[in-house]
Amino acid sequence: MLPGVPASVSQFAFPAFSPNPEGAGGTLTVYADGVVLAVWDAKDKNGAVVPNGFYHVVIHLRLADGTDLLREKDIFIHDQGSAARGQLTVEPNLAGAGELVRIFATVGEQPAGDGSQIRIYTVGGELVKTLAMAGGQSIWDLTTGRNQPAASGLYLVVLRARDPATGAPVTQTAKVVVRR
Length: 180
Fold this sequence. Notes:
It is a single chain. The protein has two domains: 12-77, no CATH class; 86-179, Immunoglobulin-like (Sandwich). The strands form four sheets. Strands 8-15-14-11-12 form a five-stranded mixed sheet, with no helix packed on it. Strands 1, 2, 3 and 4 form a four-stranded antiparallel sheet that branches. Strands 7, 9, 10 and 13 form a four-stranded antiparallel sheet that branches. The chain starts with 11 loop residues before the first strand and ends with a strand. It is 0% helix and 51% strand. 19% of the residues are buried. It has 180 residues and is an all-beta fold.
């Protein structure tokens, strides 16, 4: 058992990633009942800063009484200083029932390629829906991957693409508010 971790845990908290204001990297702190459980410095096992994107964080904790707790969450990591090689636009940014959200993306000077993806996430990191891009465009009908209406709230629209000139991954994010 880790020092300072309670004998029982009723609540885990995964606040948003905190980018390093001086450049690449940052930290993610995980709390158990308000006590710091873990801090990740956004580096891989070799000490290199991980690239921007979504990461699946798994916390496995064995309590003193032998109980195993498992918590998982997708976390978005994006440093403030990275150069944007792509552009993502969503219209409208405030969408209501029956509306379609039009998504436009470019990588470099070209429309995002057909292999590019749009992923819609809740602000808590839960994947809501994945959309394909065609000619730099896609449309979200405000439904989930199970064709259920998306709940009211703030959503992150994330472009995942490759720069055609360099082959480097490109990630861009935009926000959409859904109101029902």
